[in-house]
Amino acid sequence: MRRTGTVVEAVQALRRAGGRGEPLVVASPGRVNVLGEHTDYNQGLCLPAAADLHVVVAAVPLERPDLLVHEGDEQMHLALGTPLDSIPEVAPSWSSLVMAVADELGRLGRPQTGMVAGVAADLPVGAGMSSSAAFGIGMAMALSRTARWDVSPEDLVGVSQKAEKAAFGVPCGLLDQMTVVHGQEGCALLLDCRTGEFRPVHLPEEAGLVVADSGIRRRLKESEYGTRVEECREASRRLGLPSLRDVTLADLDRVQGELDSVLFRRVRHVVKENARVLSAIESDAVSLGGLISESHRSLSRDYEVSLPALDDLVGRIECLDGVLGARVMGAGFGGSILVLCVQTDAVAVRDEVAGLAGHGAWVTEPGAGVRVLEADMS
Ligand code: GLA
Question: Of 41, 67, 178, 344, which sits with the fewest C-beta atoms within 10 Å of its C-beta?
Fold first, then answer.
């Protein structure tokens, strides 16, 4: 953990919620994505890593079947099984995700044990670092362990993806959940979203990762994320293929004649992004930086998930000493910028980038996936 202060804050929130006794403490990381953006729901390839920034959940079981969760000034007190559309409007916005996670776990056989939890985070919320998957998976792990019920890593991934859809209507792929659950210290993951297989990949030693919060907030539901998912489906339908994973670089010329220009540009981004992921695992730091910047241009021009302000920020970051490449990260339309830099310059780059972006920047080392920090439920 980067800051033990976050654990202390989570335990304090638990105490405010009325939780007594030795807590179970779960650390659930955010994710960075080195390359492979908007490829996951096209059964493509991604190269993410768990971040060393977390959502921390401190929890104890509760005899009655209620969920009491406190985070900062926000409080949720609801009975297990409360339908999502009956959650009062005054409840915190994350309440529906907590309830949806509990529902999904209940469907898998989790006993209807209640829980009191306190939540704190050093992971920026809504900044394109998967705070929502980190929160949902941290909650799922806490709900399972406090009920003395085992949940498999595969179920953690599935529960959180379904809950996100039920709570927010976001038809997201598996990138965030797989990374939050399976992240490995010191490594990125080469993730194949067609088979669900992944393997650890070492990034070049001379490369450092910095993430900058652009301060531009988007809500996935209101963004064009769903439109992009639909456009990709439509393109594969027209091409008579199960998914865009089946289109190769060599097919692009032919495919151009079969699709209108918007759909063709969406396809070109996905196909080239998959190819960039494969090149990345063979690359040195400088070429990896080039691939990351190329990915930004593709996300901006072909996939159209950037904004003028983000393009401008990326352009200014790319000019800084020690920077090898930069791009918008995650769904787009706001959120974070990923910066690849010379490892020994990482702290200086972070400071300069924080000045340009104005909303915080972090040097990030690939960290471990969701885990229990202290467990004493006896
Ligand atoms: C969001 C979604 C992911 C993925 C990225 C874009 O983070 O939750 O599933 O599609 O956008 O790569």
Answer: 344
Cβ–Cβ < 8 Å for 40, 175: yes
338 Cβ closer than 6 Å to some ligand 1 atom: no
pLDDT in tens, 98-114: 999 999 999 999 999 99
In a domain, 56, yes or no: yes
What CATH code is carried by the domain that includes residue 74?
A: 3.30.230.10
**Using one digit for the tens of pLDDT, what is the confidence trace for 279-289?**
999 999 999 99
d(C-alpha 58, C-alpha 142), whole Å: 8
Select from 150, 120, 124 the least CA-distant residue to 138: 120
Residue of minimum CA distance from atom 11 in ligand 1:
331
Q: Which amino acid is at 157?
A: V
Do 65 and 113 contact (CB within 8 A), yes or no? yes
Q: Give the integer Cα–Cα distance in Å for 262 and 272.
A: 16
Cβ of 38 closer than 6 Å to ligand 1, yes or no, is: yes
Q: What CATH number does residue 271 fall under? A: 3.30.70.890
C-beta of 164 in contact with ligand 1 (< 6 A): no
The H or E element containing residue 56 is strand 45-62
In angstroms, the CA 73 to CA 52 distance is 25
Give the whole-angstrom CA distance, residue 72 versus residue 80.
Answer: 22
pTM of the model: 0.94
